[in-house]
Amino acid sequence: MKNTLLGSLYLILASSIWGGMYVVVKVVVSVIPPLELVWMRYVVAIVALLVIGFITRQNWRIEKRYVFIIIAIGIIGNAISIVTQETGTMLSSAQMGAIITSSTPAFMVVFARFILKEKLTLKKGLSVCLATIGVFLIVGIGNMDLSSKLGGLSLVTAALTWALMSVLVKLLPSAYSQIVVTTYSIMVALTVLTPFVLPRLHKIPFSELTQPTIWGGVLYLGIISTACGFLFWNRGLQMLNASSGGIFFFFQPVVGALLGWLILGESLGIMFWIGSILIFIGVLFVIFEKN
């Protein structure tokens, strides 16, 4: 029970941090494009994680058979998922960013079934259907401009890849330090992204980087959202099973939507709330599933 409570606390912390992240991304991405922003926040995160790792005297050894899983986590979760997430947030709104990626728990149920062989029950199946319908309502099949629809599609890709990454984390031994796993997976993502980013860095208006909101945003994204957020998320997942762990992702849209409304003045339409309620009901089905 203690593990469940502690794991839940880690996941709630991670999701709340990421909910606030959408508002920061929406502000910073107006100056730094998504790909370059992901790269910059990872550079900051690597420095933070290495400092934490050396202070806490981590064991950095990884068995050969787990190297491929860490590479997959880095490419799928830290590179593809985060780039599509920030691209989607740029093209749509902070609220849409937070709410669509909250469909992740439902996708995790599916991946956990095929990869970890966790049982797929009627309740879990229903949760996937409800979350998917909720996402469609929010992305809007109707009156939404092309930019927002592309943003929505990009965010769905982010949710799918993040769900897959979260299930892959469960394949690693729980004895492995999350500081070490997170550091290595971010290093993989940096290696993948660097060739694409370096030729484009000169296009960033560096004069605007001196604004406190921009450099402060980059530091927040690197240290709080990336280093701390990933550590909390991966640690929490190790303490709960994959299907249940993903549920706490729902704290993200609640924080993201409220901050988007409070700080960015984004409006909350009726379809947004109907979609949110459907995703929330889908999430509750998984919470109350007896494993």
Q: Helical proportion?
A: over 70%
The number of distinct structural domains comes to 1
Determine the mean pLDDT.
Answer: 82
Largest sheet: none
As a percent range, the share of strand residues is under 5%
Quaternary organisation of the protein chains: single chain
Q: Please give the radius of gyration in angstroms.
A: 18 Å
Kindly state the number of beta strands. 0
Report the end-to-end length measured between terminal Cα atoms: 14 Å
Uncertain ranges: none
Task: Note the overall shape.
Answer: globular
N to C succession of SSEs: HHHHHHHHHHHH
Subcellular location: Cell membrane
Membrane topology: Multi-pass membrane protein
InterPro entries: AA-Vitamin_Transporters (IPR050638), EamA_dom (IPR000620), EmrE-like (IPR037185)
Family: Belongs to the EamA transporter family.
Secondary structure topology:
Layout: H1 2-28, H2 34-55, H3 67-91, H4 94-100, H5 104-115, H6 122-139, H7 146-169, H8 178-197, H9 212-239, H10 242-245, H11 251-263, H12 270-287
Helix pairs in contact: 1-4, 1-9, 1-11, 2-3, 2-8, 2-9, 3-4, 3-7, 3-8, 4-11, 5-6, 5-7, 6-12, 8-9
Please describe the structure with a list of short key phrases separated by commas or semicolons.
291 residues, mainly alpha, globular, cell membrane
If you had to describe this structure to a student in words, what would you say it looks like?
The protein has one domain. With 291 residues, it is mainly α. The two termini are 14 Å apart. α2 packs antiparallel against α8, α5 crosses α7 and α8 crosses α9. Helix content is 75%, strand content 0%. The chain contains twelve helices and no strands. Belongs to the EamA transporter family.
